[in-house]
Amino acid sequence: MPHEYNNSTGELIVHSNAMNDIISYKPNWIVRNGIMLFLCIISLMVALTFFIEYPDIVYAKAKLVSINPPVALKAKVTGKLTKLYVQEHDSVQRGTVIAVMESIAAPEKVVAVTEAIDGMKRLLNSSEIEMAMKYFDEASLKTGWGNDLGEVQEDFYRFATAYREFRQYLSNGFYLRKKAMLDADITFLQRLHSNLLQQNKILQEDVSLATTTFKANESLSKDKVISSLDYRNEKSKLLSKSMSLPQLAASLIANEAAMHEKRKEVLQLENEIAQQKNAFIQSVNSFSAALSQWQSLYLIKAPVSGRVVFSDFVQENQNYVISQTLCLIDPVNSQYFAQVQIRQENFGKINIGQDVLLKLPAYPYQEFGLLKGTLSFIAVVPTDSGFIGKIAFKNGLYTNQQKQLQYREGLMADAEIITSARKLSDRIFESFNALLRRN
User: What is the per-residue pLDDT for 413?
Assistant: First the structure.
């Protein structure tokens, strides 16, 4: 049986085999140094609290907003997409035709007629009527322009009728020729009026001389120098010349009345021409409106300049229904920001310039990442739901994982406003201090 001596008394100490196994067993390293290891780990954890930053966050709700947002192009009629002119990511200018919907009209014919009508309208607005009428002629009305207009065919017929009627009032038409003749008649009457005025002047001078001669003869007759017969002859001559003055005055009045009637006819004709012109311009505008309506329904045009983005698979001869989206035009100068509703809880911690992280439910942040922004504005006056703020993005709609998010109107987000980047040790000490103050 194993035994040993007690060093102090010198007595022999006898142990059992089990005890001797325990005493002779050498513990593992972890057992012998476990306390020291535990203390080292605790010390390391405490030390790390002085380096690890644990941000103070205020949570809020935000909504994505865009200046010049992407514009969705939607079908305005139900039917097939007969022609597609663009591909994904093509750059287009405002007014570019993106696609054509099914129609009984020939699109190229409608576009050509529209260009002609637009040119005519510009010249009519500049009062260049003769030049405006050269956009069409009888041959083009019957063959060149009048075919394959489909839905706007009836509007074209009404325009063609108004065009033919108004053409009668132009320089080669009946009404302007009649006006030219009336102007010539007025010119003749004016010349006649001048001639009558000259005759009247001469006759008045002649009557004046005859009156002077008669007065002299009348004096001689009183003095018995001339005979009564001579006196009566001189008086007869004066009366004969004086009678011509009322006749000439009547001719002047008749001439002025004739000129007045001619001028009245010219005014009536000019008013009729003006009315016909207004009616023709109204017909042009009505036809132009019908063409614009057709193009808005069957031609899918880019409302802004930008880049084509398809939201779904698009191909020719594919059926679409009204309001179904074909594609989007993303303007190159789009600017995005987030409008955030900040509650009054912890509002005092929030300041302009603080970093904000946005998590969009539509784009799970575990897969797409977070949007980083900066709080750039806080409203002074609160609303019922709190204070309104503006978050400016640092990298647009690119997340911290370098993935670009597709903007959609009304996208909501969960905003995390980082008010301070305090260390973990500060938070622990604050908790202890708060606990001590309570006690």
Answer: 92
